[in-house]
Specification:
Layout lengths: L17 H6 L22 H14 L11 H15 L30
Amino acid sequence: MQGLRKDDSDVDQAGCTPSSKEKMSEQAWNVYMIKTIPQNYQTGDCGVYTLKYIECLALGHSYDGLCDSNMPAIRLKLTAEMMDELPEDEIVQLSDPNPRGPSDDKVPLQTNSVK
């Protein structure tokens, strides 16, 4: 099997040929508008809303508590859940608990598992 060349004009980055793109249309997809989904009004929380909504759907839970006022607590909970998944020996402290240098002397999160 021959590999794809970067200059191959018959195949785009997604691996689709022009003819396969032409066959796809919006009519191939079913679109459902659910009007009871909580709306996000606060800027910057759309990702948190999306993750929580997917979690609620997957677990069969109600999403009644999903609102802008709960976002700080939900964001903190999601952060804690993600950090819990990292192996303990791979977590580097984000800043020194007893800072002796300037306030901008912080170490970014580094882990061997994410590259």
